Amino acid sequence: MIPFNFEYYKPSSIPEAVELFRQLYAQGKNPMYFSGGTEIITWARMNAIRPGAVIDLKSIPECNVIQFQINHLVIGSCVPLSMLTTVNLFPLLSETAQGAADQTARNKITFGGNICGRIYYREAVLPLLLSNSRMLIAGLKGMREVSIHHVFVQQMRLESGEFLVQMITDREYLALPYVHVKKRQIGNVGYPLVTLAALKKDHQIRTAYSGVCAFPFRSIEMEQVLNDPMLSIEAKVDQAIDKLPAPVLTNTEGSAGYRKFVLKHTLIETLSLLEGK
């Protein structure tokens, strides 16, 4: 149960949503956008957030598309994670989304909600980082389309009043050789120790990670080492791990030392699978 009252709005267009935010913000109601709402409910129950109004984006047509537009795959921010797997237009994204939660939760969690969330993992962003996807963002200043690398830096960096509308990925990335590995402490239950997504393009392996550090990331420095033809696989992996962008997590799922051990063997497995493709 959420321990406070709030106003609920469900606009049917992007301009209506943005205007609602402007009005509610001016009234001091601390409005928030949401799509699936699962994470907002969790944080609200913990009194970690306290919006006076919420703006539900699920009735906006542009936020619900999943289709090809010429040479691009366009996915709306309100598309449920389960739909990504069902439609399966981007196999690496489908596998990554499928591993993010159980089926019941994936029916509620949206693509945009996962990417814009506060929890460490946000695994759905990994294929987008690898494929240099672009983000269509709406806000008080209008619409803007930007590279994911400009707006997702450890987390989504949206300005006040902005929301994510769509993710756009070039078609050439959808059929590339890929690997997705998710390692948990026990079986298929609980948060991951390591989630790794990888693509191979133009003979170069790209990797992105979740669960290793306190945020999902792709590291160009790590990729340069992993693609060094002069190094053995083990040397590549050892040197790449030395270039992690932040301290390795220690939490209830596992210690930093154990995570590094799992990451090392996951990377060896990934390189072995992709180097011959």
Description:
The chain is of the alpha+beta class. It folds into three domains: 7-56, 2-Layer Sandwich (Uridine Diphospho-n-acetylenolpyruvylglucosamine Reductase, domain 2), CATH 3.30.43.10; 61-173, Uridine Diphospho-n-acetylenolpyruvylglucosamine Reductase, domain 3 (2-Layer Sandwich); 178-274, Enolase-like, domain 1 (2-Layer Sandwich). Helix content is 32%, strand content 24%. The protein is built from eleven helices and 14 strands. The protein has helices at 14-26, 38-45, 81-87, 91-98, 103-106, 111-116, 126-130, 148-151, 220-226, 233-241, 256-274, and strands spanning 7-9, 31-34, 53-56, 66-69, 72-76, 134-139, 142-147, 152-153, 155-156, 163-170, 178-183, 194-201, 204-210, 217-218. It has a five-stranded antiparallel sheet. A four-stranded antiparallel sheet has the order 11-12-13-14, sandwiched between helices. Strands 1-3-2 form a three-stranded parallel sheet, with helices on one face. The N and C termini lie far apart (51 Å). The model has no long low-confidence stretch (mean pLDDT 89).
Strand order, sheet with most strands: 4-5-10-6-7
Quaternary structure state of the chains depicted: single chain
Q: What would you call the structural class?
A: alpha+beta
- Uncertain stretches of 5 or more adjacent residues: none
Please state the average pLDDT score. 89
CA-atom Rg in angstroms? 19 Å
Distance between the termini: 51 Å
